[in-house]
Amino acid sequence: MTSGASLCKVRPPRPRGSTAIRGVVNVRRTTFPQAGVTTASIRANAAAMYQLFLVMAGGAVGTAARYLVGRGAVAAFGPVFPFGTLAVNLIGGFAMGVLAGLLARVGGNENTRLLLGVGVLGGFTTFSSFSLEVVTMVERDAWMTALGYVLASVLGAVLALFAGLWLTRIAA
Length: 172
Known about the structure:
Helix content: over 70%
Order of helices and strands: EEHHHHH
Strand content: under 5%
Strand order of the largest sheet: 1-2
Shape: extended
């Protein structure tokens, strides 16, 4: 036989700061300090997720724009030269310069930089970020570092592409 006490349902204590309405815990006010989950950590995670969303949304716009420029260039000039890639690299570099200048002058916030600089322009062309980094090094009079970075990035990327092609060809 079982005792009467074991048949009782024992409810766990509600987390501190929570409110229960008809048995539902209000998650927005719930904290579990013993597990390191506090209102501040929830807000920080929400802010980080929002910033990630800004980068992803901007990246989708930039990637779509890159695709459309590439298609337009092939339609206009044919596939004889990568005019689309050249166009997005030049446009992206110019746009990154304008954005960096505006953010420095107006004092734009981090969300604007993430949406437009990292997201849109990052999706449009990573060359724009590379260009900004090189110009920043030059403006800081780090000419040799900038030159080394340019050579390592451009030659390194081309050599890495050749290595990837070679590896897939010998593996086939």
